[in-house]
Amino acid sequence: NGTKDLTGQDWVITAGPTMEAIDPVRYISNHSSGKMGFALAQAAQLRGANVTLISGPVNLPAPNGVNLITIKSADDMLAACQQAMTNQADVFIGAAAVADFKMKAINHQKMKKQSNADEMQLTLVKNPDIIATLASQKGAKYIVGFAAETQDVIHYAKDKLARKGLDMIIANDVSRTDIGFNQDQNQVTVLTKEQTWSSELATKNQLAIQLVEHIHTHFKSTLSK
Ligand code: PMT
Known about the structure:
This protein is of the alpha/beta class. It has helices at about 35-45, 75-85, 130-135, 155-165, 205-225; strands at about 10-15, 20-25, 25-30, 50-55, 65-70, 90-95, 100-105, 125, 140-150, 170-175, 185, 190, 195-200, 200-205.
C-alpha cells in the first residue's frame, strides 16, 4: 500500500533450512528454499520496518535494505537470533525449517565406510527449540511461528501455538507438492488464540504482503489491550 507504517519497528525473521554437520563433508538438512522467509523480510522492509533476516544456506539474493545474517546450524541460528534481539524486537517470525535433531558428536574426520557392514547408525540429540526459547525470553513483543505439517494440519498447528508460547502460527500443508517447500506458491491458515484465517493460493511474494498486514494488525491489537 506504499505506506511506511512499520517505520521504527524492529522485525527479526528466520528463513531456510538449518544444516547439521555429520562430518566435514556430510550433513542433515531439509528442502526449505528460504523463499517464504525472504519474501516476508522484503514485505516488512518495504513497509518501513528495520528487518534482520537470519537464514540457513539458500540460493537467494539478499532482499534490498534488509540486514542478512547467514548461519548453518540450529545452534548458530539461536545465537544469531538472541544477538539480534538483545534489545527486545517488535516482531519475530520463525519461517526457518529448523532441524529437530543434530549429531550427538560431529566427526572431525570423514567417516569411513566399513566394508563389512550393511547398516550404520548415527546418534542424534535434540536441537534447541529456537522459537520456544525466544518466546520464553520475551525476545520480541509479538512472536509468529510457522507449522509445516503433512496431516491434521490445524490440530498440530494449534498444539504448537500453545506449546511453544506463540502469539500466532501460520500453518502450511507440506504434503501438497504444489505449495510449501521450495515452491513459488503457498496457501496457509493463520491461527491466533481467537481467530482463524485461510489465505487463497498465491505466490509467496503476494502472500508475504498479506501476512505482514495480518501480523501487524494483530500485534497492534495486543498493544492496545
Ligand atoms: O523455505 P521455503 O521453501 O519457502 O518453504 C517454506 C516453509 C514450508 C519452510 C515455511 O513456510 C515453513 O513452514 N517453515 C517452518 C517449517 C518448520 O520447521 O515447521 P515446524 O512445524 O517443524 O516448526 C514449527 C515452528 O517452530 C517454526 O516456526 C520453526 O521455525 C520453529 N522451530 C522448529 C524446530 C526448532 N528446533 N526450532 C524452531 O524454532
